[in-house]
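Re: Re: token formats

Sure, here are both.
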Amino acid sequence: MNAAFSFLSDLLPGFRWDVIERSLPFLLLGAWMTLRLTTISIAFGIIIGTFVGIARISRAKLVSYLAAAYVDFLRGTPLLVQIFIIYMGLPQVLGFPVPPYVAAISAMSINSGAYVAEIVRAGIQSIHRGQMEAARALGMTYVQAMRYVILPQAFRRIVPPLGNEFIALLKDSSLVSVIAMEELVRKGQIVIGRTFRPFEIWMMVALMYLIMTLTISRLVTVTERKLHVPG
């Protein structure tokens, strides 16, 4: 390892490879927190988005309007502002502080839910309406037809956009560093404060994000093939 860093140092004499070597374990902890935040948030986002997506196509006007308002507000405002509302604004209303971890998960989940809702809505509407009519003709209720016939087919089709949403949320998770959540970006800031070597650290942070996003992209591709997702 030392020989490799020595060789690279000869190629780029101004680049401090030893700083990266010492900081890597600390940055890996931040990368792990980034993955945890994103995975938990996307899981909640899929749950929220599924219900909101179904509500978006509901024949009940009030339900449809409320779902549309939710989607429009969350997609029309920056995630950073939503984080501030939950972390700094809600405590004034609730009367007690919201922990950074809870605020980060809440903001990311609610935000992701709005995007997933549109993905789910489009997926459901891509299924031929004859599927629903056939299910109802067999005696299924609307809920049963949606659960056993429509949603399974829709979810196969929305795997690619859900993968893209996961990647987008992974990168957007860097915004929670503003509320002192020690994910990858915040860990990078801490290391820079100790080493005063921003170029090396930010390049390493960027590389770690790239590795995570490429890995997720490959996993989504493999999942598509296994599910035989139509193009």
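Second one below.
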Amino acid sequence: MSETLLSLTDVRAGYGDAVVLDGISLDIPRRGSLAVLGRNGVGKSTLLLTIMGFTKVSKGAVAWRGADITAMPAHRRARAGLGWVAQEREIFPSLTVEENLTVTARPGPWTLVRVYDLFPRLAERRGNKGNHLSGGEQQMLATARALMTNPALLLLDEPLEGLAPIIVDELTEAIARMTREQGMAFILVEQHSDIALSLAAQAIVIERGTIVHRAPSAALLADQATLDRLIGLKIDPAASGRG
């Protein structure tokens, strides 16, 4: 049986007294991948923030490799092997691409050589400061910087949001390569449901802070009626965006 990296058991979480998630249970095995789908404002990003330790958990438990980390601060979770690519990217604007990558680096298989192979655009711009990159390049940098921490599980919060189609294609291929070649486990929150389901093995749909549907991604991708009922809005990846 595959090692279970992450487990959430009946988790209720939110901000202060406000409850956003309620009754969330899920397991991510080693090399596992999960697409998190749902309409805007249902708690998808809060799920990732809860896994990283940025919310108040009032019920249930979060476990990492069998150990309870419900009360563990975010920086210790990162050291333990959780990698996070925030929706806001949060790169260091005054540092070069290479400085952004090396400042967070930890020993492991992901090195500058490997992330530059995954993201050739970053290799070309290794001397550029973060605030001189396009939106798409900043997203690549945020993803590559998380990989340089050599996580066991990568959390991706809407990495394709607002990007030009060519950048969407490049990032999608990079995520696919992480899984195909390196066996990277990941949880992907994404509005592009078709892309998310093509990348992840399993899927959940969140509605009003609870999981209302679970399925293998291939099965859900083939069930357009269920997707339309649960999500409704279908994002066109060919639509224009910043890149």
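The CA atoms of residues 206 and 212 lie 6 Å apart. The two ends are 42 Å apart (CA to CA).
- S.
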